[in-house]
Each structure stands twice: as structure tokens, then as C-alpha cells.
Amino acid sequence: MEINKDKKTDDILEKLVHINRITKVVKGGRRFGFSALVVVGNQSGKIGIAHAKAKQVPDAIKKANEMARRKLIHIPLREGRTIHHDVKAKDGSGRIVLRAASKGTGIIAGGPVRAVCEVLGVKDIVAKSMGTSNAHNVIRATMKALLKQNSPKQISTIRNKKISEIIEKRG
Questions:
Q1: Beta strand extents in 27-171 (DSSP E only)
Q2: Per residue in 127-169, pLDDT tens?
Q3: Residues 98, 84 contacting (CB under 8 angstroms)
Q4: Arithmetic mean of pLDDT, 24-36
Q5: Residues whose CB falls within 8 Å of the CB of residue 28, separated by 6 or more in sequence, listed in order
């Protein structure tokens, strides 16, 4: 069941990516539980993802939002609108390719990857998800890809060079 619900509170955008109903058969009948996969971000480089379970849907969403807010990480963005370079990543059977895009391209990505890009603040990106369409694996692969990003500042400190030397070679 795919649901795309977004809510904005104190400049952190919360997006519900996926809800799953879990059924446990017991002596008296069936017991239902729900799990929610949520992505939160401040639309300027901070993002967190979480998965939580509860007996009711709103409780599962609330738990996941709180967990994701505690796990916010910073991703460097180029000009505040795209990623620095093309990157590939894999998690489980979820494979993802993220490509930097020129200004005005928009977010060309599907489902879970689009939600991640929107809350992160990426405005121009081309993404391709291969393998599974399972939202959990796709989001984890996307996060791995984003964490592989190296900004010119990081590269300059690693190589002991000036940022201007790194940027001029970029093209």
C-alpha cells in the first residue's frame, strides 16, 4: 500500500513513504498491526529515515517521525540544488543510480527516491532504481548513495589542496 502524505512542522518536512498492514492470527481471530516508513528533512541538506510499528496507523507514523528526527544526517549539495557527482549504490536487491542534473531539470525519480529528494532539498536530479521496487531497500540504497557523495571541500581536505583547484578541474 503506497501512500504519499506530507506534513510540514517547524521547517522539517515529513513524508510518509509506505504503510504495511501486518496480520497475526491468534486463537480468538486476527490481530492487526501497522508499520510505517517515513522520510523527514529540512529541504536544505538534512535528512532522516525511520521505520516504526504500532497497533494503529497514526501511532506508527508518529513513532517513525520521531525516530527519523533523531537520526538526521547532513548531505552536501551542489549549489543547494543537486548532488556533486554521479553515484551508484546497492542495498539488498535494491540498486540505485543517482546522476547530477543541470538547472531546470527537476526531480526525475520515482516513488521512494522522489520522496527522499524532496525532503533533502534536491531540485535537479535524475535517478534510476533497478532491481526491487521494495520501498525499504530502495530508500536504504538511496541513502547509501547520498552518503558516498564527496563535496569539493571534503576532497580538498583529503588531498591537501585548495577548493578552487578541485572545482576548476571539475569541468
A1: 29-41, 46-54, 73-74, 87-91, 94-100, 107-108, 125-131
A2: 999 988 899 999 999 999 999 888 878 888 888 888 777 777 6
A3: no
A4: 94
A5: none
